[in-house]
Amino acid sequence: MGKLAYIFPGQGSQYVGMGYDFYKEFPTATDVFHSAEKALRYDLPTLIFKGPEEELNKTINTQPAILTTSIAIYRVMRELGFPEPDVVAGHSLGEYSALVVAGGVELFEAVRLAYIRGKLMQEGVPEGKGAMAAILKLPPDKVESACEQARQFGVVEPANYNSPEQTVISGEKTAVEKAMEICKEMGGKAILLKVSVPSHCSLMKGPADAFRLKLAQTPIKNLSIPLVQNYTAREHTMAHEVRENLYRQLFSPVRWFQSVQYMVEVLGVDTFVEIGPKNVLSKLVQQTVSGVRVFNVEKVEDLEKVKKAL
């Protein structure tokens, strides 16, 4: 019998109305949304359910919104008798949802961490200076080479190793655009992303240093479920390691596909369940490994079929 991993999405999966069916139908989910509202002292549930979209898409709101929605769905799943996972992981911001599930931090603290993380990231680089782009149909080493060649134009680095055929790059706009050109010349496809913050590159070192102080003040406990972290692509349970990796994650690449491979090849995971809005991670898992079962729980109607399959 293989192992079960619960995985949690990051920024980019948000949309107005996410989680509303859970909020309406399950008091457990309602409580999660209102706990987040209390933690932040503003009406996050209304912003999530009604928008406006441009407000929800601001990093400062997006991060706590996705975390809250994911945890609301997870708590309903547990209440309905879904099994506890053997291991958890999350993509970038999703690592904080995974951390709550692993027992490392209380929801109240996690929501505040997500808000502060988003705020520091948003303020860390002036609007219009940074950019991110998704590079498709090129192996990671080619993308790394393109970034090296474009470095004379400014900071540009791999930010997310999403799958063996998809790498996101991040940095200063001019350098990112130059790296995109080089990737296209190599036969890849390059898409500029609609983001206001160049995440997971060295431009985030300043915000990360400020965030480190907040992490130090946050009570983080040793985990009851192993968390495979973005920075190392390895599992961790000790609070001091988790804290350090959360700090480094901000200015280092998200090693997502390496994390997925590690969960399958080393930890023996054969079933992944993505919990939260959309199914971005489910698709990336399918691009990375074969012979595993992949499900996602985003809507109330997903509960029954996924529970039956598990």
Automatic annotation (TrEMBL):
Q: Name one GO cellular component term.
A: cytosol
Q: Can you tell me which residues form the catalytic site? A: 92, 200
Catalytic activity line of the entry = holo-[ACP] + malonyl-CoA = malonyl-[ACP] + CoA
* Entries under Gene3D superfamilies matching the protein: Malonyl-CoA ACP transacylase, ACP-binding, Malonyl-Coenzyme A Acyl Carrier Protein, domain 2
Q: Domain of life of the organism in this record?
A: Bacteria
Q: What is its EC number?
A: 2.3.1.39
Molecular-function GO term, any one: [acyl-carrier-protein] S-malonyltransferase activity
Q: Which keywords fit this entry according to its UniProt record?
A: Acyltransferase, Transferase
The protein's enzyme class: transferase
Q: Which GO terms describe its biological process?
A: fatty acid biosynthetic process
Q: Where is the Malonyl-CoA:ACP transacylase (MAT) domain?
A: 7-297
Q: Which family does it belong to?
A: Belongs to the fabD family.
Name listed for the protein in its UniProt record: Malonyl CoA-acyl carrier protein transacylase
Give the source lineage, highest ranks first: Bacteria, Pseudomonadati, Aquificota, Aquificia, Aquificales
